[in-house]
Design goal:
ATP binding, ABC_transporter-like_ATP-bd, single chain, P-loop_NTPase, four-stranded antiparallel beta sheet, alpha/beta, ATP-binding, globular, 2 domains, Rossmann fold, MetN_ABC_transporter-like, six-stranded mixed beta sheet
């Protein structure tokens, strides 16, 4: 069953054609990784899926519910589609516990005890239960990013979007965030991931999408993509990372 289906999606910024006829499908429990050079439309695509950017035409289906350019019910839809950004987006004046509880209690009207129990389970899984009363200023970048992931997970989304979540992190703490995402994949979380971490992409993905200049150039399984990419553009891209020989 498809959790996400995109048909003929078009996006413009003024006269700039940012997304060109995007067609994509993500099945339940599937991990799809989007690769491509900077500025190719990867992050724009995620932002369109989560309603942070308006689309010009085409349709997005989340759990068979149609989203088009006139769709208005984004607060409800964002409960189904969680998104984690590279900039954490934590509230600095709230503790870790308060940051995590805010969405489920305010938006979903869930009881504090229920959400807190769930939050503690996730914090334990990501190794940060001991930081539940800390504030963002007291956390490292990697810890903030793991908290941001837990905050999204506590909304119980059907699909998680990750937009270059390690891009702002020091290299030595990238691994701790990637390990959380690898574990989510093992647990069956449906994910659409934008990343420049090639080794991680190869390890976690069920399917690789390669984009350039607003278009999907190639779609393949990880082994085929990294060992024998179909397009010359993908070969050139992988050569930059010493991945394609």
């Amino acid at each position: 069953m498809s959790i996400l289906k995109i048909e003929n999606l078009q996006k413009y910024y003024g006269s700039h054609h940012a997304l060109k006829d995007i067609n994509l499908e993500v099945k339940a429990k599937e991990v799809v990784v989007i690769l491509g050079p900077s500025g190719c439309g990867k992050s724009t695509l995620l932002r369109c899926i989560n309603g942070l950017e308006e689309i010009a035409s085409g349709n997005i289906y989340v759990d068979n519910e149609k989203i088009d350019k006139d769709f208005k019910e984004w607060p409800r839809m964002r409960q189904k589609v969680g998104m984690v950004f590279q900039s954490y987006e934590l509230f600095e004046h709230l503790s870790v516990e308060e940051n995590i509880l805010l969405g489920p209690m305010k938006v979903q009207k869930r009881k504090k005890d229920e959400v807190l129990k769930e939050a503690k389970i996730w914090l334990e899984k990501v190794g940060l239960l001991h930081k539940i009363h800390a504030y963002p200023r007291e956390l490292s970048g990697g810890q903030k990013q793991r908290i941001a992931i837990v905050r999204s997970l506590c909304m119980n989304p059907e699909l998680m979007l990750f937009d270059e979540v390690t891009a702002a992190l020091d290299p030595e703490i990238v691994r701790e965030v990637l390990e959380v995402m690898l574990n989510l994949a093992k647990e069956g979380m449906t994910m659409l991931i934008v990343t420049h971490e090639m080794g991680f992409a190869k390890a976690v993905a069920d399917k690789i999408i390669f984009m350039d200049e607003g278009k999907i150039i190639e779609e393949n399984d990880p082994k085929s993509f990294f060992e024998n990419p179909k397009s010359e553009r993908a070969k050139k891209f992988l050569n930059l990372f010493d991945y394609h020989k």
